[in-house]
Amino acid sequence: MGLFNPILSFCDVIVEQVYINGDSSGVGDIEIDQNGDIYTIIYSKGVFKYSDNKWIYLNNNSANDISIDNNGIIWSCSPKNSNLGKYTEGIWTFYPVNYESYYVSEISAGIDDSIWALTLGSGILRFDRNGTIQSVFTENDGLSSCWGNLIDTTRDGHVWISHTSINFCEGCIYKGVSHYNGEKWEIYTTDNGLLNKEVRSIVAFSATEAYIGGYGGISKYNGNELETFANYRVDKMSKGIDGSLWVATWADYNTPNSRQIYLRYKNREIFQYERKDSEALS
User: Fold this and answer.
1) For residue 51, what is the domain's CATH number?
2) Any domain includes 65
3) What is the pTM of this model?
4) Fewer CB within a 10 Å sphere, N or C end of the chain?
5) Does residue 45 fall inside a structural domain?
6) What is the pLDDT of residues 54-68, one digit of tens each?
7) Domain count for the chain
8) How distant, in Å, are the alpha carbons of 147, 191, 222 from that of 225?
9) Using CA atoms in the order 118, 238, 254, 278, what is the torsion angle rounded to 10 degrees?
10) 192-211 burial, b if ≥16 CB within 10 A, otherwise e?
């Protein structure tokens, strides 16, 4: 498996890219578990795990997204093979999904044995651990849109979804962010605290702490409303294993000295790191 070499950043908290023979094309979602092991998908090859300086081939299900629940179980979704996958104790179990009705694009493992899924226009799905659809949420239930492109869930039952493009798009309709508090949905736009029409990243820690970032800055949810947290341009954010918030941003942006840096926010302090990719691991 020596052909698959990751370039690590953020002190192993975030993996920005996984390169295959020097090329990152075809590489999809990347997740890190509590042990620091890395999971990634390669669209044409399946799911891989990186642990102890080597890659482990998990399956060839051609997944397009993965998520790790609080029990360490790996979940995947595959429109190509029309299934939701569960990997635990070295065994895969696949549950069929009617992708003609619900084209699942991204998933996030939530609390109460729930797997949340974004679709391309068919609403937001909530599966149980047996792969059965328990709920389908649409605009009629309080969502901003039936389309979603980013999702994050918390251990205490909160769900955050963006309905905005993460790519430059002329004529795109931006519909803000939907938040589920365990009982109902509420919508946030630039009219009530969202700093960006185009959301680049969502990190949700708990019922009283979530961050929504884009090129216009970062908004923080405090349990009641969104408030301005920082004016950093956000390329990517992630949860640190130690409970910190990591942000990929730029110093001296739009100047000759412009460079990408990393910020870590923990215990009300912000630490800055210069970007230094490690050598490719063998």
Assistant:
1) 2.40.10.500
2) yes
3) 0.85
4) C
5) yes
6) 888 888 777 888 998
7) 1
8) 23, 12, 6
9) -120
10) ebbbbbbbbbbbbbeeebbb
